[in-house]
Amino acid sequence: MMIQWMYWGANYVSWSDGPRDAKNMNADASPLLAQLQDIHSAGPPAWWPPAPGWWVMALLVLLILAYLLKKALAWRAVRRRRRAWVEALEALNREHDPLQQPHQYLAGLNQLFRAVALKAFPGTTCARLQGEEWVAFITALMPDQQAANLQALATGPYEPLPHFDASSMNECARTWVTLYG
Fold first, then answer.
1. What separation in angstroms does the CA of 155 have from each of 116, 129, 138?
2. N or C: which end of the chain has fewer CB within 10 A?
3. Which H or E run includes 80?
4. Contact residues for 115 (Cβ-Cβ < 8 A; gap 6+)
5. What Rg, from alpha-carbon coordinates, does the chain have?
6. Residue 53 to residue 48: CA distance in whole angstroms
7. Nearest to 89 by CA among 13, 32, 7, 167
8. Which residue, among 153, 36, 25, has the nearest Cα to 10 in the 3D structure?
9. Using CA atoms, how far apart are residues 120 and 96, in angstroms rounded to an integer?
10. Contact criterion met (CB below 8 Å) for 19 and 7
11. What's the pTM value of the predicted model, to 2 decimals?
12. Where are the domains of the chain?
């Protein structure tokens, strides 16, 4: 019994008693083989345009830089504002002697405390507070050791000759500016 072999030619299938000889096969395929080229590797990848992941990373880096710039500018503005309020406090000390002009000195301190409070607590009713309520508002936010020194802000403007410790009031104002300015 003879085994039938299936041969796949260029465009047809034929059954024969065996495979064709290699010379005939190469002769049939030689025009097609002549058209083939050697395998070549791909060129290096281009650096532009970058892959989508790089665009996402660049966007994230830009957002982070914008956020940091915004925070740095806000921090710088706070430092400038604090420095201006400390300079205003020093100018108040130069212009008004607490012993000679206590009412003007206390009025200037009150103005400084109120300016800082309005900037630090814009949603509160601190703008309407006066007298004891105003001092209670400030003392609630100040460290305990300095709270007693502020009573002159409430009673000083109404006394003919107010008594207060100017250096401790000045220190309270510096602390207030440092904490909330």
1. 21, 14, 14
2. N
3. helix 52-95
4. 85
5. 44
6. 13
7. 167
8. 25
9. 26
10. yes
11. 0.65
12. 73-180
